[in-house]
Each structure stands twice: as structure tokens, then as C-alpha cells.
Write a structure and sequence with these properties.
The chain has about 120 residues and is mostly helical. The protein has 6 helices and no strands.
Length: about 120
């Protein structure tokens, strides 16, 4: 579905943030799962157009977007840092951990390294 905002009313990135919020995703997921058929469908007219949202001024929307952008940028940086940590890389590359013959512990460490 393509959704375009009325730019004079709502900032497109603010609308996107609303649509990808946990509350909205949960509501739409519930609607989709309660539908019958092989392809649960969400339509604009029946589900989205009826949603009532609190819409702050565009100035406040831009401030909110700025804060969300800063948080997302920080998350991205932290993920990049985590991916480059030596210990993290060792865990990712580990095939088998020497646990002194204890197979249960070796299996646990092996499964943890696969999840990392």
C-alpha cells in the first residue's frame, strides 16, 4: 500500500513513524489475523482512514522526527560497534568451544555462538 501525506498537514516521516509504531502494528496485525481468507488484507478506507490520531503542529512533528532520527542513528552506530567487537567476532566465528569434555556445556556455548 502506498500512503502519501498531505504535506501541509503532516510531515511524511512523522506519518511513517506513526504507522510503524508498536501500537499501530499491533492493531493492524490483530485486524489482519481476524480476517478470513488466504491473504489477510489491510485497506486504507476500512482500516487506516478511520484511525483517529493526535496530530501536533508541524513544528512539533519535526522536533519529534529529529529525536527519533537521533535515536535510530545511535542504535545503528551501536549495532556497527557490536559487530566489530573482537569478542563478538570470536563468538560469531566459533565452531566448537573446548569445555573440558563437558558436551552439554560445549553444546550450550556452540548454540550461543550461532545466535550471536
Amino acid at each position: 500500500m502506498v500512503i502519501r501525506s498531505k504535506v501541509d498537514v503532516v510531515e511524511p516521516r512523522y506519518l511513517f513513524a506513526l504507522l510503524k509504531s508498536k501500537q499501530m502494528i499491533d492493531e493492524l496485525q490483530h485486524l489482519a489475523e481476524s480476517r478470513s481468507g488466504t491473504f489477510p488484507q489491510i485497506t486504507f478506507n476500512s482500516e487506516l482512514a478511520t484511525k483517529v490520531i493526535n496530530l501536533p503542529t508541524r513544528v512539533i512533528q519535526k522536533k519529534i522526527i529529529s529525536i527519533l532520527d537521533a535515536i535510530e542513528e545511535k542504535i545503528d552506530k551501536n549495532l556497527q560497534i557490536n559487530d566489530n567487537l573482537p569478542l563478538h567476532q570470536e563468538w560469531k566465528d566459533a565452531k566448537k568451544v573446548d569445555c573440558g569434555g563437558n558436551e552439554e556445556t560445549a553444546e550450550l556455548f556452540s548454540s550461543l555462538s550461532m545466535a550471536a
